[in-house]
Amino acid sequence: MEDTEESDNAPGESIDDLRKQSRDFVTMCLTSNRDSIQELLDFQRKKLTERNDALEAIVMALKEKTMATTMALCARIEKLEEELALCRAVVGKGVSSAALSNEDALKPKEFVGTRSICDVYNFL
């Protein structure tokens, strides 16, 4: 009778053993897959971080260049505004103090019966 009990327990134990082996195998495969995926994610994160750092450096360089250009343009605008004010002052004084003479005016050519449009525009 004991032999029967042992033979009855043997198939149950072997099923339990198979379940445990299957569970261990699945766990090992999933762990291996998880590790592979984690390596891939770490590699991609590293590449993206490098790209991000490079882009940040480019953006900073562009900001610095833009600021330098803006400052140079502001200085140039101020200088041109000063020159414009000086020109306006000189022209204003020149027009008010200058006297027009008849010698400065252009004299038309003698009329010979026809005139070209170029002569009229040149006269004007």
End-to-end separation: 137 Å
Which residues sit in consecutive blocks of at least 5 with pLDDT less than 50? 1-7
Count of folded domains: 1
Described by strand count, sense and barrel closure, the largest sheet is: none
Instruction: Tell me the number of helical segments per DSSP (H or I, 4 or more residues long).
Output: 2
Strand content: under 5%
- The secondary-structure element order is HH
Summarize the amount of helix as a percent range: over 70%
The total beta strand count reads: 0
Shape: rod-shaped
Q: Please state the CA-atom Rg, rounded to the nearest Å.
A: 48 Å
Structural class: mainly alpha
Return the average pLDDT rounded to an integer.
Answer: 80
Description of the molecule:
This protein is mainly α and 124 residues long. It has one domain (2-93). 83% of the residues lie in helices and 0% in strands. It is rod-shaped, with a radius of gyration of 48 Å.
Search tags:
single chain, 124 residues, mainly alpha, rod-shaped, disordered N terminus
Task: Please provide a brief summary of the model.
With 124 residues, the chain is an all-alpha fold.
Layout of secondary structure:
Elements: H1 2-97, H2 117-123
